[in-house]
Amino acid sequence: MSDGASAGIDQRERGFLRLEWAREHMPVMAKVRESFQRERPFRGMKVAMALHVEAKTGILALLFREGGADVRLASCNPLSTDDSVVASLKEDFGLSVYARRGETNEEYYDYLNRVLDIGPDIVVDDGGDLVRLLHTERKDIDTVIGGNEETTTGVVRLRAMEKNGVLRFPMFDVNDAMMKHFFDNRYGTGQSTLDGIMNATNLVIAGKDVVVAGYGFCGKGIAMRMRGMGASVTVTEIDPVKAVEAIMDGFRVERMSQALRHADIVVTATGMKNVVRYDDLLQAKPGLILANSGHFNNEIEVDVLVSRSMERRRVRDHVDMFRLENGNRVYLISEGRLVNLAAGQGHPAEIMDMSFAIQALTARYLAENHHRLERRVYPVPREIDMEVARLKLESMGVEIDRLDSEQERYAESWEEGT
């Protein structure tokens, strides 16, 4: 569709088209939807969700409702909301959504509290703020039987709560499900981070010196995609095993203070605060571009960058220039927030198809088994991972081998040798 034609589409209609496009490219979710509409596993239950509010998450929210739930949805990041999708979810589907792009800090928490006002049975969180509120300001809510956590940052917080003995209900670590982190974190984050940076800057990647902070699955995906676009990639790490892995994968490994001296672009993906410090930026290569692909906007020392810089100026829609105390210039994309959603379109629909199928099926497992679960962090049951993998292969028209009866006996025996 030409720009002239699309200009005639209002915001609600644009959101509806984005939702329809996502639905059409999420075949695993389509299979889950069939069973949910038939079985209604969440009949009479209330689901509170805090996710990046865009087309793919909209389809997940609608899936919970199709499974019988009363659903409320808020954003888990002030800059990751697609306002057109919010408009369509409200007007076309009658969904209770509390989100807008560019929320203030006060609005962000007000919206999370409005979602919790439903008195949820199940929470679906991304980053851990919804669960944190339930353990601090909203202890009055005692209806929650458990929930799911989508991302690394939230899982780290949950494990700290479990270790400290304060977790009030069981939570599932969706992030570390095989069909989530193998594909969402690596291929989804890799592609969508590149999309956000290219959209924000309109600069070539080939020939650039790119530093990736963190070599978990997200960092691996970013490093892989950057190298595929022709960049020279350096990895920074605190984990010696991951550092060795990065070297064996063909990447240079350095400390951040050293890598900044030659970097053209730095992308953080660690889940840790202050990975890029202001004082180190004073020694950075002039014109450095900073982007964050971690959940929170604290991986780059943004507050100090704002307070100590001599000048701040918006130079592109998603890019601010900061002139440092020594006169050096650095460019920050999307205020240091999640670059793939704040400046891009988020993960591809086919990727989120698998991740959100994990979310939905794990929530069903929780609804059916919560009475025998303890107040701890659980892995996603292996059978759910295998079911999503099977449905994904089926949607791709791929068949794989199976063990015959003799092979099954062999696999379970120990007597037979050479």
From TrEMBL:
Gene Ontology MF annotations: adenosylhomocysteinase activity
Keyword Cytoplasm: yes
Gene3D superfamilies: Adenosylhomocysteinase-like (3.40.50.1480), NAD(P)-binding Rossmann-like Domain (3.40.50.720)
Entry's Gene Ontology BP terms: L-homocysteine biosynthetic process; one-carbon metabolic process; S-adenosylmethionine cycle
Binding site for substrate: 126, 150, 180, 184
Keyword terms, alphabetized: Cytoplasm, Hydrolase, NAD, One-carbon metabolism
Pathway per the UniProt entry: Amino-acid biosynthesis; L-homocysteine biosynthesis; L-homocysteine from S-adenosyl-L-homocysteine: step 1/1
Cellular component terms per the entry's GO annotation: cytosol
Residues binding NAD(+): 151-153, 185, 214-221, 237, 293-295, 340, 347
Chief location bin: cytoplasm
InterPro entries per the UniProt record, alphabetical: Adenosylhomocyst_ase-like_sf, Adenosylhomocysteinase-like, Ado_hCys_hydrolase_NAD-bd, NAD(P)-bd_dom_sf, S-Ado-L-homoCys_hydrolase_CS
Annotated cofactor note: Binds 1 NAD(+) per subunit.
Subcellular location field: Cytoplasm
S-adenosyl-L-homocysteine hydrolase NAD binding domain residues: 185-346
Pfam families: AdoHcyase, AdoHcyase_NAD
EC number: 3.13.2.1
UniProt cofactor(s): NAD(+)
Known catalytic reactions: S-adenosyl-L-homocysteine + H2O = L-homocysteine + adenosine
Role, per record: May play a key role in the regulation of the intracellular concentration of adenosylhomocysteine.
Family indicated by similarity: Belongs to the adenosylhomocysteinase family.
The name this protein goes by in its record: Adenosylhomocysteinase
Gene that specifies this protein: ahcY
